[in-house]
Amino acid sequence: MATRVPFPEDVDTFGSDERISYSAADQTWLLVDEFGEEWEFNTVANKWFQPATDEQIAAMQGYNGDANGSDEETNAAEVNKKKRKAAAAASNAKKQVKKEPENRAVYVRNIPLDASREDIEETFGRYGGMIDQGIDGAKRVKMYADDQGNFNGEALIVFFKKDSVQQAIRMLDDFPFRIGDTNAANLRVEEADMSYKKNQDKSEIKFVRRDKKASERTRAELNRKLAEWSDDDEPAKELLPHNKYAQFAIIKKAFTLKEIEEDPQLVLDIKEDMREQAETCGEVTNCVLYDKESEGVLSIRFKDPRSAEEFVTKTNGKGYAGQKLHVYIPEDRFKFKKSGKEDGVDSDEEAERLERFGEELERA
Predict the structure, then answer these.
(1) What is the CA radius of gyration of the chain?
(2) Vertex 212: Cα angle to 206 and 214 (nearest 5)
(3) Residue 117: how many CB atoms within 10 A of its CB?
(4) Which CATH architecture has domain 248-363?
(5) How far apart are the first and last CA of the chain?
């Protein structure tokens, strides 16, 4: 009899286990074991458990009802018999096929071979609805390849809401991918086989793990966008308050005090390295190195908060100069120590003051 491979219980290691995926919509870690059974991770108990089936719930409710209705004359043997019967029913229910979770994905064929990922996201986002995002912030679109590694015209798209599945089928099935394109075959859009949840490849699950607040912000942003698209006037219920420091990224473990004391030129080199990396994510308006902080701290200010989020995702946990970088977005005002000898770079407080002054000029 085959034995089940032990389940990891350290959240930091979940991304390296190909059996585990993260549902951004439910904010739940899911695991499909070797026998096809699905498990959920309880972050409070720090344990994996199988969700109760309808049969199990019915069996336990039936037992409780019988126990509560029994009179004082029911003897201990009868009670034990009912307990054994209920336990057996629950055990049998576990072996039955579990009810599949809701399907929020479509499988698409006949996509033009020259279509990009952005083209697919734009088309299905427009006609199907909001596409779900993974915990890394990337939209959940998987493009399949042939044996040579080239796109084969098939893709899997996971939506944020299950209603988008039928909407995408109605709006796009048997229609051209590009309006007016009579040379290409029409799209074939169908509800995806739920096995996609059990057969995610490693490229989908090896993402950079975000902290809880970042996950909440992603979820809130999706709800905000959904509310903007909806015809209903009811506001989204999961909006988070605006974080005025969301344009900043704080970097720690980028250097040691001993290193910059022995070679002052390192200050400029480190700043140049970090700024260059940051500019791959968006426009940078300020970069400050705090040469009096033992944790090796820098702050980077972006023009767009989304660039800061992308920078955190790309950089947090990466190695640099023999250390592992810790990168995050501050939730409140921050203040670190520096000598003030950096030429041509305004402090964070001065940059914030200048920005407020510019906003006042625009309003005048």
Answers:
(1) 27
(2) 80
(3) 14
(4) 2-Layer Sandwich (3.30)
(5) 77
Task: Note the pLDDT tens digit of each residue in 133-190.
Answer: 876 778 899 999 999 999 999 999 999 888 889 999 988 998 889 877 778 899 999 9
pLDDT digits (tens, 9 = 90+) for 319-336: 998 899 999 999 888 889
Give me 305's structure tokens: 């908060």
List, in order, residues 6 or more apart from 84 with CB less than 8 Å away: none
* Per CATH, domain 105-191 is 3.40.50.300: no
- What are the φ/ψ torsions at residue 153 (nearest 5 degrees)? 90, 5
Q: 127 is written with which tokens? A: 């006609």
Give pLDDT, residue 357. 53
**Proportion of the chain above pLDDT 90, given as a percent:** 34
* Single-letter amino acid, residue 85: K
* Domain 105-191 matches domain 248-363 at the CATH topology level: yes
**Domain boundaries along the sequence of the chain:** 54-95, 105-191, 248-363
Give residue 20's pLDDT band: very low, low, confident or very high (50, 70, 90). confident
